Amino acid sequence: MNEPRHGNVAISIVVPLYNEEDSVRPLCDRVRTTMDEIGESYELILVNDGSTDGTGELIDQLADQDRRVIAITFSRNFGQTAAMAAGFDESRGEIVVPMDGDLQNDPGDIGRLIQKLDEGYEVVSGWRKDRKDVGHRVFVSKIANAVISRVSGVRLHDYGCSLKAYRRPVIQGIRLYGEMHRFIPIFAAWQGARVAEIPVTHHPRTAGQSKYGYRRTIKVLLDLIVVKFMDSYLTKPIYVFGGFGIASIVLSFVAFAIAVLFKLIPADSALGPGWHKDFVETPLPFLSIGLFVLGIQMILIGLLAEMVMRTYFESQQKPAYVVKSVRRHQPDAGG
Fold first, then answer.
1. DSSP, res 60
2. At what angle do helices 214-233 and 238-264 cross, to 10 degrees?
3. Could you give the CA distance from residue 123 to residue 154 in angstroms, rounded to a whole number?
4. For 193, what's the count of Cα atoms within 13 Å in the CB-facing half-sphere?
5. What's residue 181's pLDDT?
6. Count of C-beta atoms within a 10 Å radius of residue 137
7. What is the Cα–Cα distance from 113 to 165, expressed in whole angstroms?
């Protein structure tokens, strides 16, 4: 077996599990076979996300039997993203490979992901090109992936595929919330990482029940709004809140000007009989006041967000930039 690439193990495989009792042992067997063929040291991190079946007891047994297996059990169900984040925090490998625990991802693809990483990439994402799911899920997924690619500017066919490979620096310092584990390639690309995508095998589900539904798609799209905001306005939130505020104030003055104009036009003007009474009862004055107050509030919210962001960066001593390299002139020995 080759020496570890980093730390104590070369590859960390992270598997979130929720009620997958029938899939865990076959999955571990396939991972073991695959990693023996690859010849790299590894650890298999199984995260029990508050399962109500025998998943927790089973992964504890597997951890007792094999030192390469690490079992993490949550006190309740926190969701796939939280389970994946816990696995990332526990991992030690230079390369981290998350995957689903329902046997639909094929551990045999891990070697191909790593080979692609070795071509100079920091992230390699799996693409379930021949996806073995019901038709409506595939259709909704295609729409969601197209929207995410369009908004983020990172063109991937399958953000929902859990089978990916990351170099450790990519996931260090990333805190995951909601359904944001699928957006890690976006965060990485925005920080200058090279991202690739390769087709991977996708098997039909043979055990357990799917945990996916339309509600998750809605959550993903809402999280996408958060991700886009963080990319464009994390260090300058006053631009978005202040922009809405100024627009609202401008509209308030426009509404007020129209209301005044209606008041000044004579009732017997060429606009026709009866118009004056209608416009005297217009809600424009109230609309003007409401828009003005809303505009002031949005600007104040923007200022508050600016203070929060500055506190965030300065308290953690986090720069608002990422340095790839620094080069200084080095005089020669005779200089």
1. H
2. 90
3. 12
4. 24
5. 86
6. 16
7. 6
